[in-house]
Write a structure and sequence with these properties.
It is built from five helices and 18 strands. By secondary structure, the chain is of the alpha+beta class. The protein folds into two domains: about 1-120 and about 265-285, Diaminopimelate Epimerase, Chain A, domain 1, CATH 3.10.310; about 125-260, Diaminopimelate Epimerase, Chain A, domain 1. It has an 18-stranded mixed beta sheet that branches. The protein binds 2,6-diaminopimelic acid.
Protein backbone atom coordinates (compact mmCIF):
# COMPACT_ATOMS: atom_id res chain seq x y z
CA UNK A 1 0.00 0.00 0.00
CA UNK A 2 1.37 3.40 -1.05
CA UNK A 3 1.38 6.33 1.36
CA UNK A 4 2.64 9.91 1.63
CA UNK A 5 3.89 11.30 4.93
CA UNK A 6 2.84 14.92 5.38
CA UNK A 7 2.46 17.43 8.20
CA UNK A 8 0.91 20.72 9.13
CA UNK A 9 3.46 22.48 11.39
CA UNK A 10 4.56 19.18 12.87
CA UNK A 11 1.10 17.55 13.22
CA UNK A 12 2.02 14.61 11.06
CA UNK A 13 -0.17 12.02 9.40
CA UNK A 14 0.13 9.15 6.95
CA UNK A 15 -1.93 10.02 3.86
CA UNK A 16 -3.38 7.45 1.46
CA UNK A 17 -5.07 8.05 -1.88
CA UNK A 18 -8.33 6.10 -1.64
CA UNK A 19 -10.07 7.97 -4.46
CA UNK A 20 -10.24 4.74 -6.48
CA UNK A 21 -10.50 2.11 -3.74
CA UNK A 22 -11.75 2.42 -0.15
CA UNK A 23 -9.60 1.09 2.70
CA UNK A 24 -11.40 -1.69 4.61
CA UNK A 25 -10.02 -1.36 8.15
CA UNK A 26 -8.86 2.25 8.55
CA UNK A 27 -8.96 2.23 12.35
CA UNK A 28 -6.58 -0.72 12.59
CA UNK A 29 -4.31 0.66 9.86
CA UNK A 30 -4.22 4.00 11.73
CA UNK A 31 -3.02 2.26 14.90
CA UNK A 32 -0.37 0.32 13.00
CA UNK A 33 1.10 3.17 10.92
CA UNK A 34 1.10 5.57 13.89
CA UNK A 35 3.50 3.49 16.02
CA UNK A 36 6.61 5.68 16.19
CA UNK A 37 9.03 2.77 16.67
CA UNK A 38 7.55 -0.26 14.92
CA UNK A 39 5.34 1.47 12.36
CA UNK A 40 5.76 4.53 10.16
CA UNK A 41 5.26 7.01 13.02
CA UNK A 42 2.46 9.58 12.91
CA UNK A 43 -0.38 11.26 14.80
CA UNK A 44 -2.78 9.13 12.75
CA UNK A 45 -4.03 8.28 9.26
CA UNK A 46 -5.84 10.46 6.71
CA UNK A 47 -7.61 9.01 3.67
CA UNK A 48 -8.37 11.06 0.57
CA UNK A 49 -11.59 9.78 -0.98
CA UNK A 50 -13.83 10.76 -3.87
CA UNK A 51 -17.12 12.45 -3.05
CA UNK A 52 -20.45 13.39 -4.63
CA UNK A 53 -20.88 16.40 -2.32
CA UNK A 54 -17.45 18.04 -2.66
CA UNK A 55 -14.32 17.83 -4.79
CA UNK A 56 -12.80 15.38 -2.29
CA UNK A 57 -13.58 13.71 1.04
CA UNK A 58 -11.19 13.56 3.99
CA UNK A 59 -11.50 10.64 6.43
CA UNK A 60 -9.25 11.20 9.47
CA UNK A 61 -8.28 8.64 12.12
CA UNK A 62 -6.35 9.38 15.31
CA UNK A 63 -3.36 7.30 16.44
CA UNK A 64 -5.66 5.14 18.61
CA UNK A 65 -7.78 4.34 15.55
CA UNK A 66 -10.71 6.57 16.54
CA UNK A 67 -12.39 8.59 13.79
CA UNK A 68 -12.00 12.38 13.94
CA UNK A 69 -14.76 14.36 12.19
CA UNK A 70 -12.43 17.24 11.33
CA UNK A 71 -8.69 17.95 11.21
CA UNK A 72 -7.43 21.45 10.44
CA UNK A 73 -3.78 20.61 9.81
CA UNK A 74 -4.91 17.54 7.92
CA UNK A 75 -7.25 19.30 5.51
CA UNK A 76 -4.49 21.70 4.46
CA UNK A 77 -2.28 18.71 3.63
CA UNK A 78 -5.17 17.06 1.71
CA UNK A 79 -5.30 20.20 -0.45
CA UNK A 80 -1.55 20.03 -1.03
CA UNK A 81 -1.75 16.31 -1.82
CA UNK A 82 -4.52 16.58 -4.44
CA UNK A 83 -2.92 19.56 -6.20
CA UNK A 84 0.71 18.37 -6.10
CA UNK A 85 -0.32 14.90 -7.30
CA UNK A 86 -2.43 16.22 -10.16
CA UNK A 87 -5.86 15.12 -8.82
CA UNK A 88 -6.95 18.72 -9.41
CA UNK A 89 -5.56 21.79 -11.11
CA UNK A 90 -7.85 24.16 -9.19
CA UNK A 91 -6.51 26.50 -6.52
CA UNK A 92 -9.93 26.79 -4.90
CA UNK A 93 -11.35 23.43 -3.82
CA UNK A 94 -13.94 21.93 -1.48
CA UNK A 95 -13.36 19.01 0.89
CA UNK A 96 -16.05 17.27 2.92
CA UNK A 97 -15.17 15.84 6.33
CA UNK A 98 -17.53 14.55 9.01
CA UNK A 99 -20.49 15.59 6.86
CA UNK A 100 -19.45 19.25 6.56
CA UNK A 101 -18.02 20.83 3.41
CA UNK A 102 -15.02 23.14 3.85
CA UNK A 103 -13.73 25.60 1.23
CA UNK A 104 -10.00 26.02 0.71
CA UNK A 105 -7.78 28.50 -1.14
CA UNK A 106 -4.36 27.15 -2.17
CA UNK A 107 -1.18 29.25 -2.49
CA UNK A 108 1.04 27.67 -5.14
CA UNK A 109 4.76 28.45 -5.58
CA UNK A 110 7.05 26.60 -8.02
CA UNK A 111 4.12 24.37 -8.96
CA UNK A 112 3.53 23.11 -5.40
CA UNK A 113 1.10 24.14 -2.67
CA UNK A 114 2.95 25.92 0.15
CA UNK A 115 0.12 27.48 2.16
CA UNK A 116 -3.66 27.01 2.43
CA UNK A 117 -6.47 29.22 3.73
CA UNK A 118 -9.44 27.23 5.03
CA UNK A 119 -12.93 28.46 5.82
CA UNK A 120 -13.46 26.26 8.89
CA UNK A 121 -17.11 27.24 9.18
CA UNK A 122 -18.96 28.62 12.18
CA UNK A 123 -17.90 27.68 15.73
CA UNK A 124 -20.42 25.55 17.62
CA UNK A 125 -20.96 26.73 21.19
CA UNK A 126 -24.13 24.99 22.46
CA UNK A 127 -23.04 22.42 25.08
CA UNK A 128 -25.16 19.56 23.77
CA UNK A 129 -23.80 20.10 20.22
CA UNK A 130 -20.14 20.00 21.30
CA UNK A 131 -20.92 17.72 23.28
CA UNK A 132 -20.16 18.68 26.86
CA UNK A 133 -22.33 18.36 29.96
CA UNK A 134 -23.30 21.92 30.95
CA UNK A 135 -26.12 24.47 31.21
CA UNK A 136 -26.86 27.52 29.05
CA UNK A 137 -26.19 28.43 25.44
CA UNK A 138 -22.38 28.37 25.77
CA UNK A 139 -19.68 27.56 28.33
CA UNK A 140 -17.25 30.48 28.70
CA UNK A 141 -14.75 30.34 31.59
CA UNK A 142 -16.96 27.62 33.10
CA UNK A 143 -15.60 25.71 36.10
CA UNK A 144 -14.61 22.07 35.80
CA UNK A 145 -12.97 19.96 38.51
CA UNK A 146 -10.13 17.81 37.18
CA UNK A 147 -7.90 15.85 39.55
CA UNK A 148 -9.39 17.79 42.52
CA UNK A 149 -8.40 21.13 41.00
CA UNK A 150 -10.83 23.72 39.58
CA UNK A 151 -10.09 24.92 36.03
CA UNK A 152 -12.01 27.42 33.91
CA UNK A 153 -12.81 26.08 30.45
CA UNK A 154 -14.37 27.57 27.33
CA UNK A 155 -15.92 24.89 25.10
CA UNK A 156 -16.03 25.13 21.30
CA UNK A 157 -16.64 22.61 18.54
CA UNK A 158 -15.12 23.08 15.07
CA UNK A 159 -16.76 19.83 14.03
CA UNK A 160 -14.83 18.17 16.85
CA UNK A 161 -14.96 18.91 20.59
CA UNK A 162 -12.51 21.29 22.31
CA UNK A 163 -12.07 22.51 25.88
CA UNK A 164 -9.88 25.65 26.01
CA UNK A 165 -8.16 26.44 29.33
CA UNK A 166 -6.32 29.76 29.78
CA UNK A 167 -3.39 29.71 32.21
CA UNK A 168 0.11 31.03 32.78
CA UNK A 169 3.26 28.94 32.31
CA UNK A 170 2.05 26.50 29.65
CA UNK A 171 5.69 25.68 28.88
CA UNK A 172 6.03 24.03 32.29
CA UNK A 173 2.66 22.27 32.26
CA UNK A 174 2.86 18.50 32.85
CA UNK A 175 0.43 17.95 29.96
CA UNK A 176 0.93 14.17 29.92
CA UNK A 177 -0.56 14.08 33.44
CA UNK A 178 -3.48 16.49 33.08
CA UNK A 179 -4.27 15.92 29.37
CA UNK A 180 -5.71 12.40 29.69
CA UNK A 181 -7.79 13.46 32.71
CA UNK A 182 -9.51 16.13 30.60
CA UNK A 183 -9.74 13.81 27.56
CA UNK A 184 -11.69 11.16 29.46
CA UNK A 185 -13.52 13.43 31.90
CA UNK A 186 -17.15 12.39 32.47
CA UNK A 187 -18.45 15.76 31.21
CA UNK A 188 -17.29 14.86 27.65
CA UNK A 189 -19.45 12.00 26.31
CA UNK A 190 -17.27 11.71 23.16
CA UNK A 191 -13.99 12.59 24.97
CA UNK A 192 -12.38 15.97 24.15
CA UNK A 193 -9.36 17.76 22.69
CA UNK A 194 -7.94 20.12 25.33
CA UNK A 195 -5.97 23.31 24.61
CA UNK A 196 -3.85 24.93 27.34
CA UNK A 197 -3.34 28.56 26.32
CA UNK A 198 -1.22 31.47 27.50
CA UNK A 199 -2.29 34.95 26.37
CA UNK A 200 0.81 36.80 25.14
CA UNK A 201 -1.12 39.90 24.02
CA UNK A 202 -4.34 40.80 22.19
CA UNK A 203 -3.00 39.39 18.90
CA UNK A 204 -0.83 36.47 20.05
CA UNK A 205 -1.70 33.27 21.91
CA UNK A 206 0.65 30.45 22.91
CA UNK A 207 -1.00 27.01 22.88
CA UNK A 208 -0.22 23.42 23.75
CA UNK A 209 -2.74 20.68 23.04
CA UNK A 210 -3.61 17.22 24.32
CA UNK A 211 -5.53 15.67 21.43
CA UNK A 212 -8.30 13.13 21.78
CA UNK A 213 -6.93 9.86 20.47
CA UNK A 214 -3.37 11.08 19.80
CA UNK A 215 -2.01 12.71 22.96
CA UNK A 216 0.16 15.83 22.81
CA UNK A 217 0.74 16.87 19.21
CA UNK A 218 3.00 19.59 17.80
CA UNK A 219 -0.06 21.45 16.53
CA UNK A 220 -3.84 21.23 16.18
CA UNK A 221 -5.65 23.25 13.53
CA UNK A 222 -9.18 22.89 14.90
CA UNK A 223 -7.68 23.51 18.33
CA UNK A 224 -6.11 26.77 17.17
CA UNK A 225 -9.50 27.86 15.79
CA UNK A 226 -11.24 26.91 19.05
CA UNK A 227 -8.54 28.79 20.97
CA UNK A 228 -9.04 31.98 18.95
CA UNK A 229 -12.83 31.80 19.41
CA UNK A 230 -12.42 31.18 23.15
CA UNK A 231 -9.96 34.07 23.53
CA UNK A 232 -12.35 36.44 21.77
CA UNK A 233 -15.34 35.22 23.84
CA UNK A 234 -13.29 35.87 27.00
CA UNK A 235 -12.25 39.33 25.79
CA UNK A 236 -8.56 38.34 25.64
CA UNK A 237 -7.95 38.87 21.92
CA UNK A 238 -8.98 40.64 18.74
CA UNK A 239 -10.71 38.80 15.91
CA UNK A 240 -7.42 38.22 14.04
CA UNK A 241 -4.79 36.39 16.08
CA UNK A 242 -1.62 34.38 15.62
CA UNK A 243 -1.69 31.11 17.52
CA UNK A 244 1.85 29.95 18.41
CA UNK A 245 2.09 26.16 18.70
CA UNK A 246 5.05 23.87 19.40
CA UNK A 247 5.39 23.15 15.67
CA UNK A 248 4.79 26.65 14.30
CA UNK A 249 2.20 29.40 13.87
CA UNK A 250 -1.32 29.55 12.47
CA UNK A 251 -3.16 32.74 11.50
CA UNK A 252 -6.77 32.62 12.66
CA UNK A 253 -9.59 35.07 11.94
CA UNK A 254 -13.12 34.81 13.33
CA UNK A 255 -14.95 36.95 10.79
CA UNK A 256 -17.78 39.07 12.20
CA UNK A 257 -19.55 39.37 8.84
CA UNK A 258 -20.18 35.65 8.21
CA UNK A 259 -19.37 34.26 11.70
CA UNK A 260 -16.92 31.87 10.04
CA UNK A 261 -13.44 31.03 11.31
CA UNK A 262 -10.61 31.22 8.76
CA UNK A 263 -7.33 29.35 9.33
CA UNK A 264 -4.21 30.01 7.24
CA UNK A 265 -1.09 27.89 7.50
CA UNK A 266 1.49 25.76 5.71
CA UNK A 267 1.41 22.17 4.50
CA UNK A 268 4.48 20.02 3.88
CA UNK A 269 5.31 16.69 2.25
CA UNK A 270 8.07 14.72 4.00
CA UNK A 271 8.33 11.48 1.93
CA UNK A 272 6.43 8.74 0.13
CA UNK A 273 6.62 5.00 0.73
CA UNK A 274 4.90 1.64 0.69
CA UNK A 275 3.95 -0.92 3.34
CA UNK A 276 2.54 -4.42 3.36
CA UNK A 277 -0.30 -4.51 5.92
CA UNK A 278 0.48 -8.09 6.99
CA UNK A 279 4.16 -7.33 7.54
CA UNK A 280 3.27 -4.10 9.34
CA UNK A 281 0.84 -5.93 11.62
CA UNK A 282 3.55 -8.47 12.53
CA UNK A 283 6.05 -5.64 13.09
CA UNK A 284 3.78 -3.67 15.42
CA UNK A 285 1.81 -6.44 17.10
CA UNK A 286 4.39 -9.23 16.94
CA UNK A 287 1.97 -11.64 15.25
N1 LIG B 1 -7.79 14.59 17.60
C1 LIG B 1 -8.87 15.29 16.89
C2 LIG B 1 -8.71 15.15 15.36
C3 LIG B 1 -7.44 15.83 14.83
C4 LIG B 1 -7.48 17.32 15.00
C5 LIG B 1 -6.16 18.05 14.82
N2 LIG B 1 -4.99 17.28 14.52
C6 LIG B 1 -6.30 19.24 13.87
O1 LIG B 1 -5.32 19.62 13.21
O2 LIG B 1 -7.42 19.82 13.87
C7 LIG B 1 -10.22 14.69 17.31
O3 LIG B 1 -10.27 13.51 17.64
O4 LIG B 1 -11.20 15.44 17.28
Amino acid sequence: MKFTKMHGIGNDYVYMDCTKERLENPGEIARLVSDRHKGIGSDGLILIQSSEEADFEMAMYNADGSYGKMCGNGIRCVAKYVYDNGLTDQTEISVISGGAVKYLKLTVEDGKVQKVRVNMGEPILKPDEIPVVGEGDKLVAAPIVVDNQVYEMTCVSMGNPHAVVFMNGVDDLKIEEIGPKFERHERFPDRVNTEFVERMDHKNLKMRVWERGSGETMACGTGACATAVAAILNGYAEREVTVHLLGGDLEICWDETDNCVYMTGPAATAFTGEFDPEELRKSVQGR
